Amino acid sequence: HTNHCAVKILHRVAWDCKMPALLFQASLFRTFQCIFKSSVSDHKELVKFAVFIMRKFTEMAKKNKKIFMEILFWKSKKEEEELENGYGNVKSKSHSAKNVWQEEQEDELRRLAAEYERDTPEPDAVAWIMKNMIDQTRSRKAVIKKLKELYLVVGNIKPKPVSKTVEFSEEEIAELRSLFEQYKSAQDPMTCILGRLSTPRS
């Protein structure tokens, strides 16, 4: 079970967030080496994941020869992007751009919400989700807002209510036309009309 959980977390980083280079690290490769030598059947999932990472490493090594030195260090997201796109080619993002949720981040939020609803590991749903998110820079307020936007019901977080469009009846339309003709020359026709409607509207 522990191995499965470990692979699941690493899979989120490498596949869901499309950042396999974060796992290009010598100590991790040494672990992979031991896994490849293992004959334990429970290690099949680990072997499959290790093969995936090593293939990604080989592909990137064809484009970036310095990657063999890079495996000596753990990397940040920016450094991972530089490995893939070239050094100095990664532009710093503005604050507003950082706040944008990517599709894979929304998918991660949906998955975590589903996991919480299934297992309810702790009382505070948002705190649990934030602890398990890859992006640890999100504020609690931002996570709650996105949960509501995605109509995810988690714990006591309720989705945004869907606004209902109330149609006007023929009588109300006729009344509006009459009031408009009467007050269209007023300084504030909208206030005049709203204050005289038989059915209050906002």
How would you explain this protein's 3D organization?
The protein is mainly α. The chain has 3 domains: 85 residues, no CATH class; 48 residues, no CATH class; 38 residues, no CATH class. Helix content is 59%, strand content 0%. Helix 2 crosses helix 3 and helix 7 crosses helix 8. The longest helix is centred in the first third of the chain and has 20 residues. One of its GO terms (molecular function) is DNA binding. One of its GO terms (cellular component) is replication fork protection complex. InterPro entries: Timeless. One of its GO terms (biological process) is DNA repair.
Short description, anyone?
The protein has 202 residues and is an all-alpha fold. It has helices spanning 2-16, 26-37, 44-63, 67-70, 77-85, 95-98, 103-119, 125-132, 140-149, 170-183, 189-194.
Shape: elongated
Distance between the termini: 56 Å
Largest sheet: none
Along the chain, the helix and strand elements come as HHHHHHHHHHH
Q: Give the helix level as a range of percent.
A: 55-70%
Q: Provide the residue-averaged pLDDT.
A: 81
- Give unreliable regions as ranges: none
The figure for the number of domains is 3
What integer value in Å does the Rg equal? Answer: 27 Å
Strand content: under 5%
The beta-strand count equals 0
Structural class of the helix and strand makeup?
A: mainly alpha
Query: Helical element count?
Result: 11
Pfam families: HTH_TIMELESS
GO molecular function: DNA binding
